Amino acid sequence: MIRTNLSTRPFYNERAVYFWLLVAALLVVAATVFNVSRVLGYSRSDTQLATQASRDEAVAADLRQQAVRLRATVDPRQVEFAAAEARQANDLIDRRTFSWTELLNILEATLPDDVRIVAVRPKLDDKRGIVLTISVVARDVEDVEAFMRRLETTGVFGDLGARLQEHVNEQGQLETLLDMTYDPGTAKSAAPEQPAPAGGALRR
Predict the structure, then answer these.
(1) Coil, helix or strand at residue 11
(2) pLDDT at 188 over 70
(3) Within the chain, what is the greatest distance between any pair of CA atoms?
(4) C-alpha–C-alpha distance, residues 135 and 177, integer Å
(5) Burial of 157 (0-12, 13-18, 19+ CB in 10 A)
(6) Is the dihedral of CA 77, 79, 85, 91 positive or negative?
(7) Which of 66, 79, 80, 185 is 20 to 30 A distant from 49 in Cα terms?
(8) Residue 182, CB half-sphere, CA atoms under 13 Å: how many?
(9) Are strands 115-125 and 129-138 parallel, antiparallel or unpaired?
(10) Please, are residues 181 and 129 in contact by the beta-carbon 8 Å criterion?
(11) How sure is the predictor about 191, in pLDDT bands with cuts at 50, 70 and 90?
(12) Helices (H), the chain
């Protein structure tokens, strides 16, 4: 007689099933931990940004209040007076400045063949304005006087009679230190009389 237990279940590979279930559970836990950490990080960042924004708003409000107080203490008449002084100073600066290129072009156009400029030194004088000290080398006094006459025809040089120094150098040439005023705003439209090309180098 054969005895069979009909209540016995068939055999299944339960270990493999449990293993994959465990792997899936670990993946879910890891993803949950990652998401939670990211959420916490974003939350902290948002908190810091909100705190910084609050501080910035407080600083901006304080600066606005300070600006209001400063505007209340400013006298409009003092502002206008300061602006007028600034405009006057700018006007004086504009009148006292000059172009080196323009000056050297005028000197070159008026320089006789036998006269050479070796130095030009400008300075500001409260009474005379722009004063030029020009050192020239020439053959004789007549050449220097011819140069001075040509300068006078331009209309921008004044007080041309002064000669600070005058002596003959080792080469037998006459060295003269001229002193004159310079006002480029009074230049004449006509060219200097009998202009001649430069006979020597100009030095700034």
Answers:
(1) coil
(2) no
(3) 160
(4) 4
(5) buried
(6) negative
(7) 66
(8) 24
(9) antiparallel
(10) yes
(11) very low
(12) 14-73, 76-96, 100-110, 141-154
Do the beta carbons of residue 194 and residue 150 sit within 8 Å? yes
Rounded Cα distance between 194 and 110, Å, is 8
Distance CA(169)–CA(199), nearest Å, equals 18
Q: Which of 194, 186, 15 lies closest to 109, judged by CA? A: 194
d(C-alpha 134, C-alpha 53), whole Å: 66
Q: How many CB atoms neighbour CB 118 within 10 A?
A: 14
In one-letter notation, the amino acid at residue 137 is V
Q: Side chain identity at 38, as an amino acid letter?
A: R
CA distances from 143 to 133, 166, 201 (A): 18, 13, 17
For the full predicted model, state whether its pTM sits above 0.70: no
To which residue do tokens 């924004």 refer? 53
Token pair listed for 203: 């030095």
- What's the burial of 115, exposed, middle or buried (CB within 10 Å: 0-12/13-18/19+)? buried
CA distance 180 to 163: 9
Nearest partner of 122 among 138, 135, 136, judged by Cα? 135
